[in-house]
Fold this sequence. Notes:
The chain is mainly α. It has 14 helices and five strands. Among the domains are: 3-73, Orthogonal Bundle (Multidrug-efflux Transporter Regulator, Chain: A, Domain 2); 111-175, no CATH class. The protein has helices spanning 3-9, 22-29, 33-42, 59-73, 78-89, 94-97, 99-103, 106-110, 118-124, 132-140, 161-172, 177-212, 220-230, 232-257; strands at residues 49-51, 54-56, 114-117, 145-150, 153-158. The strands form two sheets. Strands 3-5-4 form a three-stranded antiparallel beta sheet. It has a two-stranded antiparallel ribbon with strand order 1-2. The longest helix is centred in the last third of the chain and has 36 residues, at 177-212.
Amino acid sequence: MSQSAATVARMPSDGPRAEMTIDEVAREAGTTTRNVRAYQTRGLLPPPRLVGRVGVYGPEHLARLQLIARLQERGYSLAAIDDLVRAWQEQRSLGDLLGGERDIDPLAEDERGIVLAERELARRFPMIVPDDGLLARAIALGIAEPLPSAGGERRWRIPSPRLLDVGQALVQLGVPLPEVLDVLAELRRHADEVAVAMVDLFARHVIAPWVAAGQPLDELPDLLDRIRRTKPLPIAAVNAVLVQALEREVGKVLTTMVPPRGKK
């Protein structure tokens, strides 16, 4: 062992040290030397300081290894971690920093868009394809997005398959499609108001303190975790309130429109 390596090896073993060999920093981080080298190759981990021929690692390397581990535990791939770290280093916008969160968002996973050929759209909504007005309204509401034709047939991207299913179910129940679109337009307006209110709460009480603290990289995993846990909450709240409202309104309709048998 060289004198430089011996100097590093003789340092106290209790807790993280100012100078560590690759074996020591890997052990402190709970990973392997192979992973440490792989992270360096990918640019996720800064290179060590060379003392003679020995690579010396410090607390900043340990913190980065711990950050990588925490993000991996949250489902991030190394490629996503690489993008996140680069965005932070390049001082990009918070939207760029949080872009990777969308890749592992279970809500987004449930709503992957689909592509329908025009014949399939016409099968589900026979009245919409020949009616340019209805088609234009569906496009304006974001229900369908036109795509380049394939094989001479128009294609449509459906951003929300569940929303399309709801519309189809209502039409099959006998509700005219124009009225379905009217209700959807109203629903979107109210949804936007709810989204603005809920995001404002999150921005003021979760994101703002992180920004005020200087956007520390080591706290980013916790911020991402809060974002993931916060996203379902407005949906749960709206669902609960809407269920209560629907029960009240259905009760009113049944009372007023369906009189007791034998009475006029």
